[in-house]
Amino acid sequence: MKFLHAGDVHLGAEPESGTSLGAVRKGELWDAFRDIIERCNKENIDLLLLPGDLFHSQPLLREVKEVDYLFGTLTHTRVVMCAGNHDCLLPTSHYYDVTFPDQVTFLMDPQTDSVYLPELNTEVFGLSYDARQIEEARYDALHSTDAGRINILVAHGNILCNDKSIPLHRGVLEGAGFDYVALGHIHNRIEVSPRVAYSGSLEPLNRGETGAKGYILGEIQKEGSGPSKIHWEFVPHAKREYVPLDFPVTAETTEFSLCSELFGVLRERGLQHMYLITLTGTRAREVVWNLESITAVLAKYGANVLELADKTVPDFPVELWREQEQDNLVGRFINRMDSVEDETLKNRALQYGLQALLARDDKR
Q1: Contacts 24+ apart (CB under 8 A), 61-67
Q2: What is the pTM of this model?
Q3: Which of 91, 95, 225, 293 has the fewest Cβ atoms within 10 Å of its own Cβ atom?
Q4: Mean pLDDT of all residues in the chain?
């Protein structure tokens, strides 16, 4: 039985809202979901598992109808889904206003639910959120009931900490007899155990979600009532990623050379990605980077620089000045900074202090 596990699609969200990428990113979330449907058709995936937060908030009726249409294009795949904390089943939910195709099962019960798929000899267990915040460990009551079947759990909750979503307990999940547990809610890919995993979100939703995003593709083989064999892999899929990048400069770096060198790095890594760049190292004392200008130049050539921070320090000959000016305020200030243990704080204090002293004395 081949399965595809895609968690936290968050249709309707608009990452980078208010920027030129906002509308593009909103559309790319829908593109990613359409890609999943197409992958299921092309590879004859038996079972698509959607463990909650298909939508970013209470979906509009037209949005649910779009999903209904896409589900209707599936030629072979069965779908089992539940509602998470973002798209929870409130009384006014438009999930109730659409009848999904026969190949789709929505596990709507807020306490315990399951569906048996005889053509796959597979039973899928789960439940749906009926509120944005649920602190009860509701999944602790779910366990497999027939060892002759492939037993799967779709669960939306937090195995790392209690954030007012349903808490999950690794030992309970591993001991409940499931052949696979498809987790949702945490947007990072996490292999809890060989049979328990978060796929993470299909696309990054904010600047804190760095690294590859995608889905899990796997296969379960089971004969009789013995243990099953399972193999799965993470498939990177996101249209673009948030990429933090520390970029070192030297006292010889000019603004033009910085733009050129930085663009070369971004082009090699992929211009489609969204970069969070920090300039590090030492710059010439007379240089003050025009960060807006640098960002604009890079954007002109197709690079998406969302953040550009300057953490460089001026090229002050500290040790030379310590020796030559030990009898004046500059030398005494440098010696005084030796008592600061934190190197980052020390370097920053030297930078600001020496700049202020040199400006006052009009020196160098």
Answers
A1: 61/94, 61/97, 61/98, 63/11, 63/12, 63/94, 64/94, 64/95, 64/97, 64/98, 65/98, 66/30, 67/11, 67/33
A2: 0.87
A3: 91
A4: 93
The 3-class secondary structure across 50-83, one letter per residue, is EECCCECCCCCHHHHHHHHHHHHCCCCCEEEEEC
Query: Residue 333 belongs to what domain range?
Result: 242-361
197-219: average pLDDT = 97
Q: Is 309 found in the same domain as 166?
A: no
Domain end (from 186, 213, 236): 236
| pLDDT tens, position by position, 283-297 | 887 888 999 999 999
What phi and psi values does residue 86 have, to the nearest 5 degrees? -75, -40
- Examine the fold and report which residue of 236, 257, 280 is the final residue of a domain before the chain moves on: 236
In this structure, is the dihedral angle defined by the CA atoms of residues 36, 37, 41 and 45, taken in order, positive or negative?
Answer: positive
Tokens 């000019």 sit on residue: 254
pLDDT value at residue 358: 66
Structure tokens that stand for 138 in this block = 């509701």
